[in-house]
Amino acid sequence: MAAYMSSMICLASREHRAFLIRGNDVVVASKRYVRGLRRKPVNVLIPEDKAEQVVRKERKKKKKGEDDEAEAAAAAAERPKHGGFVKGKTEEQPTAKHAHLSAGRDQVDGLRFERAFPGDKRLARLVSISRSRTFREHQGKILLEGRRLICDALVAGANPQMVFFSTVDRLRELPLDKLRRATLVKVKFEDIKLWSDVVAPQGVIAIFSRPDSSRLNFANTGHSVPLSLICDNVRDPGNLGTILRCAAAAGCNNVLLTKGCVDTWEPKVLRAAMGAHFRLPIYPNLDWDVIENHLPKSVTVHVADSSCGPDRNRQTEDLQVNRSHTPFKAGDYGWISTSHSQSNVCYEDYDSDSDCEAEGLSLPRVDAKLYHESWAQSPTALVIGGETHGLSIESVQLAEKTAGHRLFIPVVPGVDSLNSAMAASILLFEGRKQLLRLRQSRKWNSAEGQFS
Q: Which residue from 44, 86, 243, 350 could staple onto 91, CB 3.0 to 4.6 Å apart?
């Protein structure tokens, strides 16, 4: 009976175990897993004669493991991390070493320079400076491109702020001793070509502080003559740049620009002037009330007459045979600007019976004179008007006030008036010739600004 009961109990336990396996494997697995965690490792008894050898082996393994970990840490510190965080000395030491090597490599004759990274916004700023007059005036900066123009500015004492160059050889072409305070940035030539305003860039562009003519050093002052140039509403950049170049070549004392002239620091003006900005003083954006302050007290102001009126041929013949002529009214020959600052003055189609004369107003009366006749016999100022609007009434009034003349350049019949830059070059060099001839016969007192 006892044997029968024990067999039944074993059979029931087997069936219960089978039921758990078939119906709920998770419970069986969990019980086995828990039972496995509760197991204790078997203690290994080492014989006494071999215990010391086992201890030495364990120490060697432990020491070798520590050395391997140290080598792995050093290797990991030398390798660049990809998106991971590097702590403490493992990051600082390699960075300092890399910076030292980079600093030694990014130098030219003792001057350190930077390397522009992709998307550098400093390059985009070049466009704002080159194309926006408002930005140049507000920021007080100008943009110069090309070795010759940058060198002229540095020699004259202009203050460089930032220089972009494509190769180190291009940078060495500049006077490096004058670039100590400037930021030097090496960029790709493709980037300079992208932002440059010329077809074939030279690979060097510089940003300067807007120069003050009173603080620049002009080298050719010893060859100048008492001749000033006044640009009256010249709006074409190419014409203004050429006029400035002629003024520098003729040895003018200074150049005065009235309000309405194109910005003298526009890139097209700079290229046409060929460095004239740094060879003689240029005073832009002046009112006519202020212009007289930049001229000598005994100055005589002459205006360039485009001579485009209906009686031009008759006037040319009269002047060439030296016939006596009475002073002409300015409006008779169409050389007065239609733009004006006084709203109640008539400038077009002047007529002696017009309403202007009825109101007691009349245009200035200025004698005409051929350009090769004697007109530069004292400190002289020459006014060149723009081709579109011509001379302003203020310039003619100043000529009348100083007993000046309308300088006339005769051309063959059927040919329109000369370009303003061409007329300026003819008159400036004729004025220089007359003043030099006068200097040889009479002594010029440069301190008092007059001949003695």
A: 86
Q: Tell me how far apart the alpha carbons of residues 291 and 384 are, in angstroms, rounded to a whole number.
A: 14
Low-confidence ranges of the chain (pLDDT < 70): 1-52, 54-55, 60-105, 307-362, 443-452
CATH number at residue 399: 3.40.1280.10
Collapsed DSSP state (helix, strand, coil) of residue 255: strand
Residue whose tokens read 């490792």: 41
Supply φ then ψ for residue 208, to 5 degrees.
-115, 155
Domain membership flag for residue 25: no
Q: Is the residue at 141 inside a domain?
A: no
Backbone dihedral angles phi then psi of residue 430, each to the nearest 5 degrees: -70, -40
Domain span holding position 253:
218-308+366-451
CA of 35: how far to CAs of 30, 43, 47, 117, 308, in Å? Answer: 8, 19, 31, 63, 117
- The share of the chain scoring above pLDDT 70, in percent, equals 63
- How many residues does this entry show for the chain? 452
Q: How far, in Å, CA of 414 to CA of 202, rounded?
A: 43
User: Residue 256 and residue 198: Cα distance in Å, rounded?
Assistant: 28
Per-residue pLDDT tens digits for 407-416: 989 888 888 7
- Residue 365: strand pairing partners: 329
The one-letter code for the residue type at 361 is L
* Token duo for residue 378: 């004292």
Q: What does the pLDDT look like over 291-338, one tens digit per residue?
A: 999 999 899 999 998 754 444 444 444 444 443 444 444 434 344 444
What digits encode the pLDDT tens for the residues 93-134? 434 444 433 444 588 888 899 988 877 777 777 777 877 888
Give the count of domains, the chain: 1
Q: Express the helix, strand and coil content of the chain in percent, nearest 5 each.
A: 45, 15, 35
Assigned token pair, 113: 């320079």
Nearby residues of 158 by Cβ (< 8 Å), 6 or more positions away: 208, 209, 211, 216, 278
> Is 426 a member of any domain?
yes
Rounded to 5°, the CA angle 323-365-341 comes to 150
- The answer to whether the beta carbons of residues 249 and 221 sit under 8 Å apart is no
Q: What is the CA radius of gyration of the chain?
A: 44
Q: Provide the strand spans (E) within 20-148.
A: 107-108, 111-112, 114-115, 141-145
State the sign of the Cα–Cα–Cα–Cα dihedral 117, 118, 120, 124. Answer: positive
Q: What is the pLDDT of residue 234?
A: 94
Measure the N-to-C terminal CA separation of the chain; round to a whole number of Å: 159
206 within domain boundaries: no
